[in-house]
Automatic annotation (TrEMBL):
<dbReference type="Pfam" id="PF04463">
    <property type="entry name" value="2-thiour_desulf"/>
</dbReference>
<protein>
    <submittedName>
        <fullName>DUF523 domain-containing protein</fullName>
    </submittedName>
</protein>
<dbReference type="InterPro" id="IPR007553">
    <property type="entry name" value="2-thiour_desulf"/>
</dbReference>
Amino acid sequence: MEAILVSSCLLGNPVRYDGAGKRCGHALLQGWIAEGRVVPFCPEVAGGLPTPRPPAEIRHGLGGAHVLAGRSAVVESGGKDVSAEFIDGARQALAMAQRKHIRVAILKEGSPSCGSTLIYDGSFSGQTLAGDGVTAALLRQAGIAVFSEAQLPEAAAYIAQLEASPQAHR
Ligand code: SF4
């Protein structure tokens, strides 16, 4: 049975920057939880950031790969550079995934850590751009498939494919 790394906030845990959770009640996710295959993780908390914390965005809306490569930075609304904490949290997420042989992640859309198709543009004005966050980018670089909470049917199809031919994607 494939284990799935899931953003902790999607399970309702109050780990978001605003001190709240963002529970996803979708039947697919609830089914995976009931099957015991969900591994919750919050990279920002793991990276040492407090909850609540100021909102953060990636400078110029560049994707997480640019932060990992030192070409951009994650900055809080007050201007503090928190790239080191974001990168540390991403590395911990990857280490956890690799320890548990996880090949699929469901991450919260829009986050500078977990966003997988959309992130904010770095201006703190609510504008989004296509791109991914730091953890999503690092997991992808390691070959882990990343889906958002809006792509659960696609994730389920991918998991079914992995389970139908367990060696195919190793
Ligand atoms: Fe949720 Fe990811 Fe943000 Fe943690 S870092 S609160 S898991 S979106």
